[in-house]
Amino acid sequence: MIDIQFVGTGGAFDVEQGNSAAWITFKGKKILLDCGHTVYPRLREKGLAGAMDYILLTHLHDDHVGSLSTLIFHQKYAEHKRAKILHSTADFGDLLFSFLRFSQQNPADYSDFLPLWQFPGGGISYIDTTGMHAASMPTFAYLFEDEDEILCYSGDIGNAYLFMSHFEKYPTNKKVRIFNEIIFYPNIKSHCYYKDLALLASKYEVYAYHVNHLQAPADNEIALVGNFPKFLL
Ligand SMILES: [Zn+2]
Question: Distance from the CA of 173 to the center of ligand 1, in angstroms?
Fold first, then answer.
């Protein structure tokens, strides 16, 4: 089984739960998936701010990259190492580089920027979800596949059917675990309404994040990451 734990399970404003971010151990490497504004302080508390081998990002909203620059500086000045940042597409790599230029001037002084396929041993792929979260913002979902299992991570996305269409197109006999974002309010196009996730959860093992799990409505039947201590870092 691919090991996944969450540094935080909440949305942009859920300071107590922390911004959603995952700590994934895959093929012997530790990957930090997203680095929102609450993530660096949490990693410092755990003594893990320099412990990841790679950083991977779903998109550039603050609750996903808000402490990225600080984390990279920490690695350089406190841990004396260069961060390794994986990117999905070349365009997204360029965008990330430009984003970091605002605080780092020359981001190449601090980090190596690597295309996803350069991850040792492979097995990580992306689904381009651009436009499914915010009008024209580049966003990505990721899939981690080993011999036994495919672990899916949605990133922010207002489409509860993404992984269902994916596996209709690319059927698999492997175990599938889906970590999907969720929201409890209807008519919000940028996130997945919990009732819309019911179909996905009837077919796959689904855990939802990017929400304050303590505010779940009484009729919510989707498993929430925040309720599973085994998923909390
Ligand atoms: Zn977002």
Answer: 31
Q: Where exactly are the structural domains of the chain?
A: 3-231
80 CA → ligand 1 middle, Å: 31
Nearest CA to 97 out of 117, 112, 82 is that of 112
Residue type, 82: R
What pLDDT digit, counting tens, does each position of 173-227 carry? 999 999 999 999 999 999 999 999 999 999 999 999 999 999 999 999 999 999 9
Q: How far is the CA of 212 from the centre of ligand 1 (A)?
A: 15
- In the structure, ligand 1 is a single-atom ion and the residues with CB under 5 Å from it are 61, 156
Distances (CA, A) of 176 to 2, 124, 139: 11, 14, 22
From the candidate CATH numbers 3.40.50.1970, 3.60.15.10, 3.30.365.10, 3.65.10.10, the one assigned to the domain spanning 3-231: 3.60.15.10
What is the distance in A from the centroid of ligand 1 to the CA of 102? 20
Whole-number Å distance, alpha carbon 132 to ligand 1 midpoint, is: 10
pTM: 0.97
Per-residue pLDDT of 114-155, as tens digits, reads 999 999 999 999 999 999 999 999 999 999 999 999 999 999
DSSP 135: T
